[in-house]
Amino acid sequence: MSASSTGSGSALCRFAHYFVVCGIDTETGLEPDELAALYEWLEADRQGRDPETATKGENFDQSPLKRTFKSKVLAHYPENVECNPFDQDAVNMLCLPKGLSFRTQKDNRDPQFHSFLITKEDGTRTYGFVFTFYEEVTSPQICAAMQTLHQMHHAEHASSPTNPCPTSSSSSSSSTSSSSSSMDSLASSLDEAETPSSSSSQVSGAGSCGACSGSGGYDASRDTLYVSKALCLIAPMPFMHACKRFLEQLHRAVTSPQPPPLPLESYIHNVLYEVPLPPPGRSLKFHAIYQPIVCQRPGPRELPLADFPLGQAFQLLGVENLVQLFTCVLLEMQILLYSQDYQRLMVVAESINTLLFPFQWQHVYVPILPASLLHFLDAPVPYLMGLQSKEDTDRSKLELPQEANLCFVDIDNHCIELPEDFPQFPNKTEFIQELSEVLLHFGVSPEGGATSPTTTTTTTQNSTPGTELKNNVLKELVDDGRNGNIGGRAVDVLELLQGNATLERLQALAKRTGVSVGHLEALSRAHASTGEAGRDGGRMSAADEEELRNAKLTVQLREVFAGRFTAMFADYEAFVIQSAPDLESWLTNREQMHNFDKASFLSDQPEPYLPFLSRFIETQMFATFIDNKIMSQWEEKEPLLRVFDGRIEKARLYNVRAPSLRSSKYQKCTVLKESTQAIEQRLMKIDHTAIHPHLLDMKIGQGKYQQGFFPKLQADVLASGPTNNNRWSNRTATAQRRTDRHKQHSEHLGLDNDLKEKYMQEARSLGKSLRQPKLSDLSPAVIAQTNWKFVEGLLKECRMKTKRMLVAKMGREAVELGHGEASITGLEENTLIASLCDLLERIWSHGLQVKQGKSALWSHLLHYQAREEKVLQQQAESPVSNGSERRRSESGIGLPTLRVSLTQDMRHIQNMSEIKTEVGRARAWIRLSLEKKLLSQHLKQLLSLHPLTKRLYKRYAFLRCEEEKEQFLFHLLSLNAVDYFCFTNVFTTIMIPYRAVIIPIKKLSNAMTTSNPWVCVSGELGDSGIMQIPKNVLEMTFDSAFRPHTHISTVFKCQNLGKLTTVQIGHDNSGLLAKWLVDCVMVRNEITGHTYKFPCGRWLGKGVDDGSLERVLIGELVVPASEEDGGRGSRTPPLQRSPSQIRRISITSLSGRGNKPNSAQIQESIGEAVNNIVKHFHKPEKERGNLTILLCGEGGLVGALEQFFHHGFRTARLFQKNVFVWDFIEKAVLYMENADQMGDLAEVPQPVSLNGDTLCRYVNAVNNTPRSIGKDGKFQLLVCLGARDQLLIQWLPLLVECPVITRMYEETALLRDRTTVNSLIGVLQTLHDFPITLETSLTKGIDL
After folding, report:
1. Which stretch of DSSP H or E encloses residue 1007?
2. Which of 736, 727, 650 is nearest to 692 (CA)?
3. Cα 122 from chain centroid?
4. Residues 6 or more apart whose Cβ sits within 8 Å of residue 1125
5. What is the per-residue pLDDT across 739-784, written as a single tens digit (0 to 9) for each?
6. How many CB atoms within 10 Å of residue 945?
7. CA–CA–CA angle 357, 361, 363 (5° rounding)
8. What is the pTM of this model?
9. Is residue 990 a contact partner of residue 912, using CB atoms and an 8 Å limit?
10. pLDDT, tens digit, for every residue of 1189-1223?
11. Which residue, among 270, 264, 272, has the nearest Cα to 236 in the 3D structure?
């Protein structure tokens, strides 16, 4: 079989694909690390130095034992596997991420184990398991080169007076320039404290190097030099424990005084070609050098394979931190793991990945980031990466390119730094409690931090034969055959005897004649007991018991997480939108499709879940999960989805879920016990045993055993597998046939495979810019291409996000795309805006030259502000051309122009003491700009300062790509089509300046008043309290036609009132000119610029109109003049307004003879008003508008009932005095009180008498209020109180029965029509189902 063909069919079922040896190439000698040189090249290019000269010189400033030298793949077997091509650069980089490491006999040389994975561009993963140990350097050339390098380093050190010791050189150089790159500081902080950790390395001795000899120095005449070497197995599945044990035994064979039973090639050939993958739901035993190794694979209905010890991740971080990290990963933030130990990085990364079931991480995933690839941290996309720290390196010195959306996990110090605006995982407290119970059951502390820093150091540190046998149980296990661990020759003898009839007869004859064959019988019994070990339980070694315990703990913890998702998404299928007839049309239209009814799904969830869920369903991992669900109608179900759907079905069968979908009651996992049974059964009864290692057809004399040195293996025997069929080749052939059939079937599909794959990749990459960076080819050209992909990805993401925000907000298109209603929930809006803030931070972090704070955007804004202030100082002497824009006054009259200024908005944010961080300020500024519809304009202004952008950003940065930048600003400009209150609704506790302007009717005589006016402004979040306005603030302005207008203006500051709803206006009726005809009141939020108009059009004064000295006005948001034409069609509906002047006069004043509504119109308006109130209460609480508007605004309940009461009201004037509805109510109440006293109502049933008392009490309370409200105001107040206390339907019959009605109403009046009144009572009855609450501005001063 040729080397290249080893990868076809059989490789799919092999346990391991490659065996690799990495280390120093003695022929090429010491070479500086190319990738480190490439990094120097990139940094020199960024700093404007000549890149070619920057990398030529050696860095003699650093100790040779600390420098990075190039490692090489010394050997790998087989040459290639077709289904998994060998990536030499990536494997070499990940086996020895720091390059070659040198030690002397004084240093700590404990072997280390770590894992890694390589993610291919299609998302598939290959796992590597590495055992690194130190081998003595025997090459005189290498030792001489190291001696020379050390002498040169000492000479350089001696000639530099500023560097007292070599260990401080890197730190001092890293702080020489305050403008050093963030990547420079990152690299230098990682290089610090590189000295080996053994205290013995600090022992100083007399030698040629003087003071340096004790600090990691090397003297060839006195020291022994060691260099790192890595043994690696590359496997298609993460069988971590099995690979670790195999490599440990391989290392033990190398360091043992006695050679192994067989040449090492036999064991490596066996694991590469003769050990199959265990079938799903089965266990497999194969034989290493000293002990057998067992691995098992979950069944098709179990959780997928996860062999990394999850318990260790919980020990390292603690339950609380791990749940927080898990939440960050679910929300696709940037995750950076940080530890000295590579294996810890891998364990935490893989543990988090396995807990995501049934979802999968869709973005950049590099659990071990080699030091040469630090520029990957500049990626403006979600990532999950692991970075190795050095001992005693301070976290504060680690400057990362972007931290606004970063979750930083310091594994060794058991701490985690979370991003701002971080929602909690649903039922977090109960969830942590359940996880803690599982951990305590296995003796693990939920607090974490219990493990020592050397947890991943292997158990072979003091390996001599025999010392590994920890107890008698383990010794018996190794000696006897219960695990098939019989010496090779004994097995051969036994097989020979058992297969030969003549020898069997001789054996029987020997027994009869009394000859002892005890040894042979014992051998036979031992071999026979191998198959019975599962049945009698056998005795497990301490290592096996520990492995079983870890496996049980892992699966129980995973079940708790899987149970949470099963409970939270039990009904997800009901909200999946199946809109395409076939796969081809679905794939081609994927970008336009709306696949999940998010609004309906969220409306079905318990309130506490919403902050998390609203953000989670916007992630790429959730979108991919839903895509897989939709594609499962045409293709085979994706394995994770199949298991998850099976669990949901099972939960339904057992009726685990609470009957109410909206229940947030926590449900514990019910399958913990049974989940571990399958694992135990597979371990106790081994299903398959692989072929034993055996002698190969090798050349004699090669690869001679030498203790402590890994031999050069014979490549010809390892290049390919056995040609004869073995036990599992039939299964391989069957699997290959099945694959071929599936391939043929795919080729017959209507959709061309290449086209289908293209669509699939495009569909699945929606919202993602780069799935995985390529580790192997890292030329500057490839890095530039990668950055270009980032730029394209960011632009695409911006387009998707702005479109999503517009569609959700604007209505009609949203309904067509599957939203339940033409509205967006406040929660969903907040989620989308938070997501936009994250995107802007990532764009501003891309290609940053100098890291100057946690928020790149705010840092850029501060630079701009400083420059603008300097320009303003220079212009202070000649303020002719100010240059700053001004926005036209929204109101036209009365309000001074509000200046539009980027720096002014920044100052507003800087004055908010509630915001403490740079990231918070940047997000507040984005929200403010978005609410003011200035985001695109402000950012365009910010980026128009080209010298500043050039100074802050590298050439490849997004913000320096002109065409993409223009498109980006255009997408943001589209957001001006809709109204956002994302600043006002979020920062509810800040102090805001408001300007209130009272505008009288234009006639100058009516505008004058001698009384003392006051106002009280109310909003959704509170009111300003009564503010007296001094008399001398009467101002005069001129309109465009130079007509004079007078108004009263005042500025006040109070806590954020939210959206404004009402204004109370009044005066004290003092002076000669006390009557005042007010046109309207204008109120403007001086930070957001939102202006509200509160129409009045009525008198305030005694003896005029209805005699009111104060009124409650209902507000409407004023549309800025520039938007009235352009954006009107797409705007959200305006707020309800105050009852207009025309309606007021036509209803209340009998002199108004306008067009009165007929009876049908009146009844319709009442029905509509009640219907609006009912709809108000059917919305989620956070999305309801203001109830006062629905009660008292135009088209509200009060106005509709006023029309009803005015229908047929007698129009005769009494001495030119207006008659009001309130006059009728007062007379009716007076009649009831008098009649009650005289006993005339004795024949009336008791309940009516009680209702009469209630009406009298309420009317008297309204009349006795200290407030000077007029008769219309009193009627409004009575209706509001009656609606609140559910009394309107009891009062109406009393008024209808009262004899006063005949004097004040005509026969045709609606109030005198019993049928109509009964119909009105029925309509008002529907309000009794809802708790109506009234604003304090309405009920102030009422004593009931």
Report:
1. helix 1004-1007
2. 727
3. 23
4. none
5. 554 444 444 444 455 555 555 555 444 444 445 555 555 566 667 7
6. 16
7. 175
8. 0.71
9. yes
10. 888 888 888 888 888 888 888 765 555 567 788 88
11. 272
